[in-house]
Every structure is written in C-alpha cells, then in structure tokens.
Batch of 2 targets.
Target 1
Amino acid sequence: MEELGKIWVWSIKLAGYQLTFNVTTILMTLIVMGILIIFAHYASRNAGMVPHTCQLIGEFFVGNFWKLTVDALDEEMAKTYFPLICALFMFLWCCNVLGILPGLEEPTKDLNTPLGLGIMGFFLAHYAGIKTKGFKGYIKEYFQPIFFMAPLNVVGELAKVISISFRLYGNIMGGSIIIIVVSYLVYDLILPPFLYGFFGLFVGTVQAFVFTMLTLVYISVQVK
Amino acid sequence: MIEASLIKAAAYLGAAISVGAAAIGAALGEGYAAGEANAAISYRPRYSAQVLTTMLVGQAVAETPGIFGLVVAIVLIFAAPSQVPLTKAFAYVGAGFSMGFSGIGPGLGSGFPVGSACQGIVRQPEMSGDLMKVMLIGQAISQSTAIYGLAVALALILLA
C-alpha cells in the first residue's frame, strides 16, 4: 500500500529554476509513441485492395472516426481536423490500456498528460473559432446573451479545460487505485484480472472516446 | 501528538463525506439514463447499438462528479499534511462537504440529457450526431458547479 504516493522524479536545476521531470510518465509516453509509430509503419506498408491485419485495424479506426468528424464538423473542416481527432483517440486508447501490461503504467495516470492534451484542445478550438468567424465575431460570442455575461462565459471556457482533463485523470487514477487496494485486500487472488479487464479495457476505451468526442465538440461549437 | 491525530481524523471524515455524498448524484443520474435507454430500446429494438453507445458515453460523463469526489478523498487520505495547526482540521472537513454536496446536483442533472438523447435517437435516428453533440455540451456545462466545488475543496486542502 505504501507505493501509492511515490513517483519516480528526476529534478535538475537550470538557471535558478527547479525543473522536475516525472520519469515514469515520460518513459511510458515514449513507449506509447513507439507502439503507434510501429503500428503506423506496418499499417501503411504494402497497402492494397485486400487488406492485411494491421491495415484492417487502421482502416477501422479511420473509417469510424471519419464518420464522427463529418457529423460534427462539415466535410471541408473535417479534412483539416480529422487526422488530429483520430490520432488523439489512438494515443489516448493506447495510454489507457497500457496499464494492463505488467510493469507498465498509464501515462494518463499523471495529471500533466490529460491537462496538456486538454490545453491543446482548448487552443485548437479557439484558433478554429477565430479563423472561421474572424476576430470580431469570435469576441462577440462572449457577450451573448447580454454584455455582462462575459466573465461567466470566460470562466465557462476555462472550466471546460479543467473538466475534460480531470475527468480522464480521475477515472484512470481512480481505477488504478481501486485495483491496488482490492489486490492488496484479496492477496492478489482471482479478482485482479477482472478488475484490469473492467478498468483497463472498458473504462479506458470509454474515457478515451469521451475525451476525443469532447475535443471534437468543443471545436464544432466554436466554428458554428 | 493528539493534534496530529485529530487532524488525521478530520481528513478521514472529510474523505468519507466527499465520496459518499458525491456518489449519490452520479448513481441516480446514471440509473435514470440506463432506465431511459431500456425504454428506448424496447420502443425500437433496431437502434439498440446506437442507444447503447450513447448511454455508455453519457454515463461516463455523468460519473465525473463521483470521480471528483474520489480524487478529493484520495488526496485527503494519502496526501493531506497532518503537521499543521488545528484549524486545518475544519478545512479538511469543509473540503469534504464542498466536493460531496456540489457533486450531487451535477451527477443527477447530467443524467437527464443522456435519457432524453436515448429517447431522441430512437425517434429520429438520423439526428444522432447532433443529439450526442448537444448532450455532451449540456452535460459539460451542467457540471461546472462540480468543478467549482472541486476548486474550493482543493484550495481548502492545499492553500487554507
């Protein structure tokens, strides 16, 4: 039970500032990136009319998310934002499912990963909003329905980042804590595999999908 | 010594209130969503796959206040410092109240859009993309009060 609060941290001093690196998160993120790059290499190599296994999995992802993106944005916009949406889901899904392999941990268990992705989504959505509506139209949105609602609208926009990232972090962190506590209580007998199945595979997939959908919806709210 | 254990006891009490109260709303909202989804499927069984997807996504979002309660409880149990002045004990109990009670309303409230979206999908299946979009936006906004509760709870634990 003592391992709950401990993280492997690597800190250096640079020009008077203390920089702290969470080594586990960095390593696991690199592993996920490696997996995705290898997968992409095998999926696009020898692509043909009769798909092989990797190409089939890749086409499954692309086909499904293309439909969702076109539903939320229109066809023209979807071409710009679809690669990001699909890649975001694949990255998050690999991150959330990584924990079921022994010895590896989910990078999303660290708040910094979801928060970074949430901030990325925030800036992207607002960039898309400014680009489609123009700066004037974008600012005008904040003064709807009446002008003194502006502070509340700004808080609401910022709260989106907090809610989207804490939702992912809390679910993955909560799941892994429940797995540790229950494994400790039953002496690692019988139950843990089912818990990994539920929290790792099921909750991980649903949360990755929810995060992706919310990023997509935030972009589509800004451009419409 | 007694002070430290009192403060620990306060942190445990706060953790229990936080997760206990926040779980009420999330559970009610998710149960309502599941009930509506069942009614929708019995009305038009052909769209059961779409209704199931919408229900699962919506429930995952409606669960957020409960997760916030869990996060605050974990922070209180494992990360709350106990070598602090006695007034901090009240801050810990207050953090539990803040997160716990602010979790009830959003958990319950963000279950309703899921139920209505499930009913709407079987009524007009071609609108399912729009329905899910509006559902997710509405849920995200109705959960802003839970985020205020979380912010106050974390401020009480870490800053007060």
Target 2
Amino acid sequence: MSETILKLDNVTKVYPNGTVANRDINMEFEKGEIHSIVGENGAGKSTLMKVIFGIERPSSGTVTYKGKETNFSSSMDAIKAGIGMVHQHFMLIPSFSVVDNIILGDEPKNGIFIDKKEAARRCQELSDKYDFELDVNAKVSTLSVAKRQKVEILKTLYRNAELIILDEPTSVLTPQETDKLFDQLRFFKEQGHTILFISHKLEEVKKISDKISVIRNGVSKGTYLNEELTMQQLTNLIIGRDLDSDMDAYKTHEDFNNEKALEVRDLYMERNGKPVLDHMSFAVKKGEILGVAGVEGNGQQELVKCITGLEETAYTGDIIIEGSRVNDLKIKGRRNLGMAYIPEDRMGDGIAGELPISDNLISTYYDRDDINGKVFMNNKAIRDTAENLVKTFAVKTKTIDASVNSLSGGNIQKVVVAREYNTNSGFMIAEQPTHGIDIGSEEFVHHKLIEMRNAGAGILLVSANLTEVMALSDRIIVMFDGQIAGYFRDAKSVNESELGMYMLGAKHQTPEEIGGALND
Amino acid sequence: MLSSIFSTLFSMKFLITIVRLATPIVFAAIGTFIAAQSGIGNIAIESIMTFAALAGVLGSYLSGSPWIGVLTGMAIGVVTVMLIAFFSMKLGANAFLIMIALNTFADSVAIFVMFLMTGEKGTTASLTTPILGSWDIPIIKDIPFIGEVFSGQLTLTYICWLIVILLFIFIYKTPTGMRLRACGLNPDAARTAGINVERLQVLSLVLSGIFAALGGVYLSLNYLKIYSRGMVSGQGWMGVSANGIAAGNYWILILSAIIFAVFRAVSIIFSSNSALPTDLVNAIPYIAVFVILTAVSIINYYRVKRGKVEEQ
C-alpha cells in the first residue's frame, strides 16, 4: 500500500514584481519513492522547492505534508516536520568540521556546552549506517566536492528527514560519483525515505526515478511513471516540442579557401616542472567547428587560457589569430583582432552579476564606435542593441534593466552567447558553452554556434560533453595529458567509444596522423 | 636620561602600567571580535567608548554610586549599537556610513553634553564623582613579584579578564557561540540550518556595545576619575586593528591588544623622561598599529601566494 506523504493543491506563487513562478501546480508524492521534477531553467522548479521547504510562502493553494496542511514560516518549520533539502550550492561552513556542520542548529548538549563526544558518535553512526565513509572530524574545506555533498545529505538525515529534496545533485559529480550517489538514493528509498530529485540531465532522471513530474513555464505538465515515458516524450513535455538533435541538417558548406581563424604551433607550457601543454599544434579554419574532447583536467583549461590571453605564465610556441601572432597581446588586443570567448565560468568570468542585462550585453565591445560616443556612452544605441539581442536570443526577462543575476542559468548563458555573437568575430572559443543549462537553452546555443560557423567564423569548441562535441564539430581533436592523442578529420566517422579510448589514454595516434590537425 | 628610561622599562612599574593600559584595548578588541564573529564589522567602538566614558561619569555623579555609572555607560553602549542595528538592518542604511558618522560626532556630542552638565568644555573635574577602586587579592598579594603585578589592579581590569575567559567559552564551547560563528562564516548555511541569523547578529552587536562601553567607563571611572575630552584617543581603533591582525584567532586577538598596550606604555615612559618631541613620542602606539598591520598584510599576501592558506 502506498501512502501519500506530500500533496500540492493548486499551488501558485506570484512574486511581488509580478513574475508568476508557479501556477496551479498539483502534484502528489508517495512515501518511499524517488520522484523527479524536471523542467527548463526558469520553469519554476526552484520556486516550487522553496515553497515546499518553507523558504517561500505560496500566494495561493495548499501544501499538505503527512495529511496536515503545512503553514511553514521558515525552513526551520520544514526541517522540524521532517523535510530535508540538499541545496545545489552547498550550505556548508568550510572551516568547521564535518560534525560541527552536521549538528549546527540542533546541537547535543551537556549542560550549557556542546557535547562534542556525543555529536561525533552520532555523526559517525549515521555515516557508517549509510556507508558514507566519512571522517567526521575532518574539516570540510579538506573534503572533495562529492564528500561535501555527503555531508549535506547527512545533515538532513541527522534531523530525521523523511522527505529529502536534492536540487541538481549531480551537477558537481563525476559519472562514477553519480552512480554511487544513485546507489545511496536507492538505499534511502529502501529505508522508507522519499526522494525528491531535481535535475535537467534527462538520462539521469530516467535512470533513477520511479515517477517524473514535468513543469513548463510554471505550469505542471503532469506526473508520469518512469517506464511509461520515452526520452523523446519527456523532452517533448519539457520544451513543448521535439528537440532537434541533428545539427548537421543546419550546416551549410561554403568554401572559405581554407583560411585559418586560429593557428596554434608547438604550444608548450609547464607547471611545477610538469608539462601541462605538451607541444600542441592545430588550426581552426574559417567556417568550421573544431571540437576538443577530453576528460576534464587534461590541459583544456590551460589551452583556452593561453589562446585567450588569460594565462600570465610563460609558454612557448606560436598562437596566431586571424593571421597575426598574438603571443605578446593581452586579452583586449586579441579581441580586437576578432576573437570572441564564451568562458566556462559563467558567473565569475562571463558576467558582472549586479549590472543590468543591457550592460552585460555590450561589456566586451563597449568601446565600439556604434555604441561609444567620443566622450559619453551612446545610451540609446546600447539600449537598441540590448533590446535586439534579448529578442533574437529569447532571453526570458521583463526588461533589459534587470540585473543579470536575476535570470536563470540558461538565460544568463544566452546573454553571454548573445554578447559574443554580436562581436561579429571571425574566431570564437566556446568553452563548455552549455554546461549546466537546460535542453531548450542548450539547443538554442547550439543553433547559434552553427549559425556563426555558417557565416564563416572558426569555432574552437571545448567541451566535456561528448555528445555535444560529436553533434557540433566538423573535425575533432582529443586531448590527453596535455597532448593531442587523436585527430579525426571527419567528426561523423568516429563513435563515442572510439573517442573514449583516446580520452583515457588507451590509444594514441602517430605524429603523422595528428599532424592533420594543423595541416588539413 | 637614557639610563632612567631603561631602568623604567625593566621595572615592576612598567609591567603594572601595561596591565592597566591593556584593559581598555582588550575591551575594544573583544567588542570588535564578537561582532565580527557574527559577520558584522563594528567600527563604531571608538565612539561607543567615548559616549560610555562620559555617561559613566554622569551616572555615577547623579546616583552617587560608581556601579550605577558603569551600568549607565553600558546602557548607552547598548543604545548606540541598537541604533546601528535599527538603521542598517531595519531601514537598510549602510552600516559603515552610520558608524563613520557616529565616530565623527562622538567627541563633539560628548563635549556638548559635558558643557550642559558642568558649564565646562574640557573635563568633568568640577563634578565630584565616586569612582571604582582597586582590588587586593588575599594571599596572592603577599607573594613577591606575582602579588605586585596581579594583585591591587583596578576592579574593571579583573572584570575584563574574567570576560575574556567567559567569552572564549561562550564562542567556542556553547551552541549559541557556534551558531553565532556560523552566521559570520556563511549566513546562508546558518539560515538553512534553521538559525535566526539576524537575531544572533543583534545579540553579538549588543555584547559588542557592552564590551566597548566597559572599555569607556574603565577610562573615566577607574583609570582616571574624570571624563576629559578626547580621552579615548584611538584606543577603540587599536581594538579594531587587533581584530584585523587576529584574523579570527581569539588568542592572537588578545595578544595583539596587549602588544598595543606595550607600545602605549613605552610612549608614556618616553614622554615623561626624554627630550624627544612629545608629539613624536605620543605617536609611537599609532605608528606601531600602522607597522604591525602592514607587516601582517605582507605576511598574509605571501602565505596566500605560496598556497599555504586559502584567500579569505
């Protein structure tokens, strides 16, 4: 017999600024199930979680937990009722020990003091029970991301949470760590816990869920049993139409005379006496996308830093953008030659969060003649440009004056891509361009990259997402240990497992074969 | 002349002077520290000391009891921090601007009130003010050397060191202390753990105001027996600086406060004994603050650069 643990009836949340985040959401969660909630960035998942967890109050509608209507005034009430939440951005104090982080807010006492012994015992017991393999006395700052997540989960278990909400828990994990997490989630389920799993990685959702609920534009699109949904149906529910997965169909093939947008010759860089970039040579031609595949940490970041000019330390070799050697130029100089850059760290390097969307849309070419007068900025031109970009890139916002921080992740990335697109550069580096954004936005970004390619730009696509590299690239290089381990003249002729062999170092081509990366 | 300076430097009197001079700086330091632990930079310590020093004298004069004076000073300290909390947390004003404003007009307000009460603008010497005395500890006072340094100190000095120990226990051993630190280190984490961050920040501000006020009344009701204009003269700022040097380490905080007291003691000895210009000698503790803060920043810069500690 299944029993309902949580029930949402016509939950509506309207923010004071008029944004309707949730509209008449009805959902039911049964005890002991893994129930995923999926939807695009900004679809209203996070708001709904906040309502359930007591951080936000619903504008109308009711939340019923264990047969009683909740009226949480803060997350404290939700915690007391037995709801726990693992936030996407960890809520931990790095300088505290694991024990202190877990007991914070609900400390075992001995007189007026914290009973440290009892606290450590309880935490160790929990960690052992769920096979977390944690040293509870370690400082959190010394732990890996995966272990920190375990601490977050232990925090909820320590407070006897029966319903655990996990907000994008896999976004920080490696595939192996994700598998381990899923095993643990299944164990929690056996123990009678209910798991509310939020993700936009649909493969994972299909893998772990018993039931799946879909939200689109703040409206519930129904709850389904996992097995009654195909991947395609699920995609369709989320974005309201089928997804274009075949990017090739959009590619045109004009001849740009083999002109090169970027040439890298014999690039070499050391760190702590070890080569991190080991004599790499390749070129990006006009009108093509060169994909860089590889397991993260094999030199991709350093490569990008060398090409963009972010790397201050010495490297040898030549970097040639649009025919000019740029080794001695700083970032701005390289941009002036026609380089555009979509950085991996969207929040840190991609935007100035507090500034309005309009300013963020012109920040890399603020000095261009069309928006910069001799003395003052041409505000009208800036606004026109921004309005235009927001429209063509379908950035979901009411006004270009909103701070860019107020947007969802996918929309922030659209702002970054729109800005770089609008530089009209002949060369673009796209570094993890769709990392952590929903499938709708991902598709959009992909289309724009193809559009730039068709218009004659050379694009260097660095991505840890193999599917993405294979879908977009014309040619592919695989990086392993700072070297080009494999080169594929035709991205269509190679499959995932073949690339995997090169990524893991199991295969390595001859220098002659790799030479094609530069000379083809 | 030099020999007289040296003989003073190594005398018992010098040690006793340091203990006396350390008290207000230690009060200011723990006042800054407790606020900082909950995530609030209280730079109004100097002004709170000034208000409390004068309020203490007036309270004592009007009531006839120095302890009522101490309570009056503490009350003024609490009122001041509550004003800061009200304007910044409730009305959303910039806390630093409020505190800068307080520091800017503290001296003038004190002089104005003093003039209303006494008709004078320099000191409250015309008021007969009962003050706190010193305390001889039985048994210990008879032990040579130790007795001389540790016994017979001013009453508020003993209270100061008692608070230093109790505060350590409070911050590091009790649940409330741990929650308070959590508020300063990651308010979002504290909030999601069900902690009322704002309430704890107000609590730490109140404690901060009380400690700073005790530093102030120590000066006017215990160390001297009058309020005189400008008597705080940067001792509050030394406490703030000590907090900067300590970077969250309680005992380094206390040690830094004592070091500032040593420099003040040195400056006092030089000013009474040497032919050096008085202004220069008076500047010694402030130069020390500058030099020590600079040195600490340089050391931290290289520690971060060499990857020994994470950037804060």
